[in-house]
Amino acid sequence: MLNNLVISLRRKMLATLAMVALGASWPASAADGKVYTLGVIPAAPPVTMHALWTPFVDRLAKETGLEFRLKHYETMAEFERDIWSGTPDFIFSSPIQFAVAYASNGYIPLVRGRNLVAIGLFVRKDSQIKTVADLSGKKISFVGNKNLCSVYMQHLLALQPGTLSFEKQYAGSTRNVIINVLLGKTDAGSVFLPDMARESEETRSQLRQIVATPEIAPHPLSAHPRVPRGVQAAVTRATLAIAGSTEGAELVKTLGMAAPVVADYPRDYRVLEEVDIKGLTNWGQ
Fold this sequence. Notes:
Elements: H1 2-23, E1 35-40, H2 46-64, E2 67-71, H3 76-85, E3 90-92, H4 95-105, E4 108-112, E5 119-124, E6 139-142, H5 148-158, E7 167-170, H6 174-182, E8 188-192, H7 193-197, H8 201-204, E9 207-212, E10 220-223, H9 229-242, H10 246-255, E11 261-262, H11 265-268, H12 277-281
Parallel strand pairs: 1-2, 1-3, 6-7, 6-8
Antiparallel strand pairs: 3-10, 4-10, 4-11, 5-8, 5-9
């Protein structure tokens, strides 16, 4: 559980607290030649992620007067190991990855998309499965073992009374999860509710939701505590300012930060401390 990591965090942060305190009044300036790294979750190949994120980073540099360098990753495991080591100055990660980043290195959430998200578990409309208990011994399709829609749903199922045993099948994409359920290859499938809402009426009419998770805050842009507070504040202000224009709003939306708001750990992500993230995701592997 992450609670143990939170306890050990106090020791690891001692060396950075003084830096943060001294940096609280530092102006956002590139005069000292500091280049801040921004590690981005590898949702696509590095070349694609670079093209997607470069316009935002260029705008961020212009707004803050700071210099940033994008850091891309070939695999999710590589990104997770970098988070664990605390290497990037800033990260854009999934909520579950951020929860580990917070527990291991004290990363601070700065901004996130405005809309909360929930995950639903769906079966075929004509399925005999009516409740979560009926899933015992069945096969459930998930996107992947490191995806929020998979991990948070598995956590919810683990909280059910008794022992719920089921077979996991990782389909690789939301669309594949839905297809597997429709074709009867799996008994149920876990997907984000907004993704299901974007499916055609024909598809949705063939499926039935049996349970949904509580809503959770989406991917945050976060900062390592060694980053001076003044710089953290400048990045927060700049991101919100970029989203204030029509063009900028569309830009941050493509990155997964639609209509960004200031993030808050207790309000947005503390609930994830009870999730066995490392166990459910094979963290770093």
